[in-house]
């Protein structure tokens, strides 16, 4: 029986893996489900993979520490209300027979954010609604068979960068520039380093993977430097038929505080753990679809930040 384990990544920072979720005071985010090469059996063999996925993440739960709070319950200059993130992420990956490979990921975000501006005792509702390209990610990797005749294992390393391709000065109709964490780009070049292992379990018609990755900004742009981020994913896939597989992942993300004159260090930085069940369907030998539901198990933020109650991901992947 052929195996088609999969898993969606996210956030844009496993971005040799794009998805590294970015959670901040105003709530811009990518899904943290992993769909990179470590999570997909077809992606660690020679050839090319083109993946297109859609993410829906509504962040409408203000949180202080690990507890839920109401809008404005903890006084701030801005009372965050909600951010709707609808992301379309395209990723092209190429793996060579030598074990070397590369990936290029480009996100397009449809983002709608609302907060209440407190000014001298008065409250003003501010809103930003835009559709923009975000920061692209370019990563290389090297992978190698680790043995196991009955249960073959593959391990590898990932290295690359997030590039400052997204805009950083988006303003609303009133001319107010959005907070830096809400912008489609950070303006910084970020180093990405990681490692992964993937193992097939033929006797169980299953497979599992694990991966870790670190992303750290190499510079500051216009008074803003995003905090370093660490991501870890553990996943298991079970093939029930030649065409249908069930998948479950645990996704952990730790983000340090942002820094700089235009940052909000008192309301940035977080620790999150998500459980992400999903499924994949093999339409043809080269085309498959997948879907995931992501549920937060634990969320702890610095200061007051918007967090999601759930997230959804659907996508298609073609191998050629």
Distance between the termini: 21 Å
**CATH-defined superfamily:** monomeric porin ompg
Order of helices and strands: EEEEEEEEEEEEEE
Structural class: mainly beta
Identify the notable features of this structure and list them briefly.
320 residues, mainly beta, Porin, 11-stranded antiparallel β-barrel, 14 strands, 58% strand, elongated, disordered N terminus, signal, FApF, Transporter
Describe, in plain words, how this protein is organized in 3D.
With 320 residues, the protein is an all-beta fold. It has a single domain (11-319), classed as Porin (Beta Barrel), CATH 2.40.160. The protein contains no helices and 14 strands. The protein has strands at 11-12, 47-65, 67-68, 78-95, 100-119, 122-133, 137-147, 153-162, 190-201, 206-217, 229-239, 244-255, 270-282, 287-319. It has an eleven-stranded antiparallel β-barrel with strand order 2-4-5-7-8-9-10-11-12-13-14. The two termini are 21 Å apart. The model is unreliable at 1-27 (pLDDT under 50).
Set down the secondary structure blueprint.
Layout: E1 11-12, E2 47-65, E3 67-68, E4 78-95, E5 100-119, E6 122-133, E7 137-147, E8 153-162, E9 190-201, E10 206-217, E11 229-239, E12 244-255, E13 270-282, E14 287-319
Antiparallel strand pairs: 2-3, 2-4, 2-14, 4-5, 5-6, 5-7, 7-8, 8-9, 9-10, 10-11, 11-12, 12-13, 13-14
């Amino acid at each position: 029986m052929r195996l088609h384990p999969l898993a969606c990544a996210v956030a844009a920072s496993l971005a040799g893996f794009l998805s590294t979720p970015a959670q901040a005071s105003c709530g811009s985010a990518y899904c943290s489900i992993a769909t990179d090469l470590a999570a997909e059996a077809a992606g660690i063999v020679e050839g090319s993979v083109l993946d297109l996925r859609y993410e829906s993440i509504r962040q409408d739960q203000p949180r202080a520490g690990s507890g839920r709070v109401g809008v404005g319950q903890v006084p701030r200059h801005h009372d965050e209300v909600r951010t709707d993130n609808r992301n379309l992420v395209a990723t092209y990956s190429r793996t060579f027979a030598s074990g070397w490979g590369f990936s290029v990921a480009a996100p397009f975000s449809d983002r709608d954010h609302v907060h209440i501006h407190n000014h001298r005792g008065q409250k003003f509702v501010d809103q930003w609604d835009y559709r923009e390209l975000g920061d692209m990610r370019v990563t290389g990797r090297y992978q190698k068979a680790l043995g196991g005749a009955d249960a073959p294992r593959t391990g590898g390393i990932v290295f690359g960068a997030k590039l400052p391709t997204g805009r950083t000065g988006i303003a609303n109709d009133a001319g107010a520039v959005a907070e830096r964490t809400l912008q489609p780009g950070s303006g910084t070049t970020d180093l990405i380093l990681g490692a992964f292992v993937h193992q097939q379990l033929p006797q169980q018609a299953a497979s599992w993977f694990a991966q870790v990755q670190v992303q750290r900004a190499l510079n500051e742009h216009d008074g803003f430097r995003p905090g370093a981020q660490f991501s870890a994913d553990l996943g298991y896939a079970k093939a029930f038929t030649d065409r249908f597989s069930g998948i479950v992942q645990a996704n952990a993300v730790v983000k340090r505080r942002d820094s700089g004159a235009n940052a909000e260090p008192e309301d940035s930085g977080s620790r999150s753990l998500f459980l992400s069940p999903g499924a994949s369907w093999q339409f043809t030998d080269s085309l498959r679809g997948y879907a995931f539901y992501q549920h937060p198990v634990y969320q702890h933020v610095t200061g007051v930040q918007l967090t999601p109650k759930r997230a959804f991901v659907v996508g298609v992947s073609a191998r050629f």
